[in-house]
Amino acid sequence: MADYRVLIADDDPVMAATLGGALKARGYTVVMARDAMQAFMFAVQQQPNAILLDFNMPAGTGLGALTRLQASARTSSIPVLVVSGSTDLTLPATVRAEGAQGFFRKPVDLEALCARLEELLTANAPSSSPAAKN
Question: What is the DSSP string of 7-27?
Answer without folding.
Answer: EEE-S-HHHHHHHHHHHHHTT
